[in-house]
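Example with several molecule types.
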Amino acid sequence: MSRRRPDRRCLLATLALIAISPTARAAEGDVLVRAGTVETVESGPLRPGAVLISGGTIAQVSAEIEPPEGAEVIDLGEDATLMPGLVDADLPGGVTGPAVEETREITPTFSPLPAVDWSSRAFLEALAGGTTTGAIVPSSENVIPGLAVVVKTAGEEQSDRVVSRDAGLVITVASDPASRNRSRTRPDSIYVRQPTNRMGVVGLLRESFARAARGADPDPDTTSPAAGDPYEPLREAMAGRRSVLAISRTDFDMLTVLRLAGEFGYAPVVYGGHEAYKVAEPLASSRVPVVLGALRVDRPFGPEGTELIWNVAGILHEAGVSVSLSGGDLLDQARFASRFGLPREAALRAITIEPARVLGVDGRVGSISPGKDADLVALDGDPLEFTTAVRWTMVDGAIRFPKPDPSQQED
Amino acid sequence: MPMLTLRRSIGLIVLSLLVAEPPGAAGDGPEDAGVRALVGARILSQSDSGTIDGGTVLIRGDRIEAVGLEVEVPEEADRIDVSGLTLTPGLIDARSVLWLPPESRRDSGNDGGLNILDGVDPFAEDWRDVARSGVTAVAVQPGNTGLFGGRGAVLRVGPGGAVARLTIRPDAFVQAALGVNDSSTNSILRYQQYEQLKRSIEGLKKYKEEWEKYAEAKKKYDEEQARPDKEEADKTEEKEQGKEKEDVEEQGQEDDEKEDSDGSKDDEGSEDEPAGDEAGSISLPQDEEDDGDEPEEGDDDEDQKDGEDDTDGGSKKPAEPPKEPDRDEAKEFLVKLLGGEVPLRIEVHREDDLRNALALAEEFDLRLIVEGLSDPKSAREELVRRRTPMVLGPILELGSRPPYRRSRADSWPSGLLAEDSRWAIGTYGDRPADSALLRAHAAAAVSRGVPADRVLRALTAGAAEVLGLGDELGAVAPGRRADLVAFAGDPLDPSAPVALVVSGGEVVYRDPDVQAPEEVEPVAVVDADLPDRLPSRFVIQSRRLLRPDGSIGPGALSVAEGTIVASGEEIAGADDLPTYDVGDAVIAPGLLTAVSTLGQSRAAAESAGADAGFLRAVDAFDPTGKTVRRLVRGGVLKAGFSPGSVNVVAGAAGAVRLGAIEPVVDPVIGVGLVLSESSRNIERYPASLPGQVALVRAFLGLEGGEDPSARRRLDYYLSSPVIDRLDAIRRDRAEEIRSGSAAALFEAESPAEVEAALDLAETLGVRAVLVGPGAIEEHPARVSRLAGAGALTLVLRPIPPGPVAWRRLEAVAAAAEAGARVLFAAEDPEELRLLAASSVAVGLPASSALRGLAGGFAAIGLPVEGSPASPWEPGAPADFTVWDGSPLDLASRPLAVVVDGRLAP
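Resulting structure tokens for the full complex:
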């Protein structure tokens, strides 16, 4: 009975927040946010700290700032922490229909952007957890699924919410693309696709990069019939102008990623990496960052059945690998990782600046520093404490969470 | 048994006192207990007071306190002005699944042990959509999959939170069904079902008898337990009188031995043993009786006693008490069926099942409520004679019709009803919000020939009577529950908006923007008086001709050889022609279902290649198809016939005249571009929305040109010259869209799909038709921008009631205000008109709705070859329908359908 009745205090707090929220005048007025702790991420914590926001970007970061004339001041209090908006390198959901064009295996020019449902609940949930920027990654059903795009989780105009239309070429070095394919039983069937096993996946990757390298015509059996040269993104990757986001989970798949990178000369990022702790050394020496998929220890991942340990992030960090956390609930994941061995500073970086670098958007997001987008999360305590809650989330200088949404008021 | 039930009901009362008030309800208290006055409405009271014009209804708490012209409104009352509106009792849906989660809607049982209140989700939010349609009470029961489910209840429509707060009447009836589930066509199974139900009820009877027998035996036993002692005590007393002193000792002994008997005599009710208490209280008067005819029995007793006195006093009582029968919680309640304390509500469709049900009622003295009744044949007389309460529905068949309802006549249920029938209407929906369609079903009943006043009664007082709540609901009268609805117009017209809904004294819905409608004089039309065959040349005239702009006024049409040769208020020089004056009947152009597959989607689709731009739907048109015939009967004579939506580029939609000799008007009025899920296919390109967008762009030549290798793959079995020819057709079609001579018919559903369609429409810069129209409510700014530029047409397809439907219809009305054209598409004539009516109810102007419904192909906003700009233009085919009211009013029905100047069968 009382479950459906919004907690009055919570409601009042929400209303109060809305009242002081600079949403309406984000563009014109300056906003000064003070907090007991400001985790800048790149230049250490400030205790206390203050951030001046002007025109949707961060103007000044300092221990104490005198509020300019007419500026709105939000004082979060001594216990509160202000940190940069979190960056999820693999935002779950937010797409209408499948996030991959599964009818062909090699679809390097595929972009999930037209399928993004800007009003999706997934964005609201991310926002509630402090995530302000997320990558939408084409899923691993294809050998080369396409391009990752980076978007803000909130904003007025949809075009303003796109941070990067091309954050890297996604390839799959795992057996996912093979799992639903059928082998050729009838010679004339048009519904047959290869590969049907992991070797085939790697073979098709190698063939595609080789064709792209020598400028061959697209293979009509595997490439998409959409306009444009499907191999162009591959060539750009080989020329070092584009990063390659390689979905792989097991140790031997990651070694294959390194081998292929060596053969074709592209810079890979490992996505998934649940068994990366076994190959931390080679990953570190090739300077390959790892974006860990959502940490889950109750059952194995993927068709391969990965062996996951709890301190995979800590081991990678210790070996010198850049670690990002991804796949939703970033704060909880950082708390989990730090509890099992990832140092505090690395845990904070793993949900902010590291994924921003992986996605090539660190010039705009990922830390609190002048000139960057005013994407901020106000927490009512230490970010890595499980009892800490998100007080509000600001995107481009406007508080977007909480908003008067009944689903958010439940409990 | 009686005591046990009593004890249980006391428990229930205590329990309900504990749970009735949810902790948070305190906040609602003041509002609940408020005094309200609804002033100025035309009150259709459904009670003895009849219709009261400009009366006042005074509400105190959850009850109606006073009704009438001279009701004094207290100072503190919250006055609500409802003048110009029509006030009725809250409508009652006699068969609903509101408040029921999916499993409770479906599930049932065969032993009557269920209680639907155990399956109610009091937190469900669907009631809002139902409330704002004017429904304030619903009857719910276990599903009809079980032949003997259990208890049904009557629930309110209003804020929930606790089951007790929702319940108007628990245990209102017990659900049963015969011949409904998979056995409906299997005679043996049907017979077995009847046998099983009969056995169940026999079991109840046996159970009741067992307990009665037990009660009797117990009584006797207790009596016999008590009597000897008393006799002895009496005797003792006698002795006492005689020989006091002697007996002091004796009595002392007896006291020790027979404490009970003394106790029961001297200190009734104070003893611990409950059975003893009862026996004592009952046996007392009987003792007196015994005293009355003492001679014989007294002697016997004394004889016995004499013998027994010598032996031990205890052994003379019967050795064992009667054995208590097994207690069955479900049967404890279900025995109330016998004798009719609680009615058995039984769903039967066929004559034999109905007769079986009536026989059961006779044999076991049951009170019946019957529902279903699709084909009762001669058993109908029985129903009429007994005035058996009936629940009828669904009257509009939306969606697929289950096998047991297929035998219903087109005029069902008007043939079932007699003047004094006791009946209610049920919506029989699958989704909780389907109860919002109650008025549509009611209007459909009117269109099938049931007088409107009796239909309104069936929604209110009639339903209350059927459900056994005649003193509680269904009338605007003092003492009744304050369930009231104010309509802006005819309560039975679904296009009349609801202004105010009061449920249990609470205002649960209010739309202050609803305006009182203009006074319309009711016109009763029963027949068009047309001959069986129309001559080749004739004039038809009416005081109500629907004009292309959506207005209605006097007019006449002159028809020659199947073509309209003249039209106007009067036809000059037509004296020698046969002239038919249909009086007040409405002459309307054939209605249009704008983008429809006419039930022929399978014929008109080809799924191997997602780009089927070369296809024409009209090539697969079957003029005698079932859907087509049904549409013609319902006055729908024009269709934008479109291919199925399994392909991204679905092919060309054509304009066709239904029922006509030469049906095809224009083979290409637009090309279907499907962005919704239905055209994503994992077995061929594309399987994703970005792929769909890319394919549409490629088809329209928007970027990069075509990819020949892809075409080769898609048309794998075709030879090159054929492929080249098909590609040429594709290019032509794309050119037609780009030049604006054919419409881009976008099918989109989710927000992202609609956005992609709007993107494409803006890029193309041509008139876009959104079919569905999908989640336009998520993109209000872009939609109104396009609509304002005159570049948007929305085709509304059926959408089940619920919050999405409401928001979507509101968005459609807003887009229409901004300048978008609105059309409707459905595969059933009444569903089509319901769409238009529902749009009007949320704010679409009636003239816009009529334009979309009856404006012909011109309403799409594109040139359609071979189709006149106006349906009454000379040279236009003589296709029209004579209605007994506005086609926008669902209660109207077509009296005559004319195609090519001839009456359609």
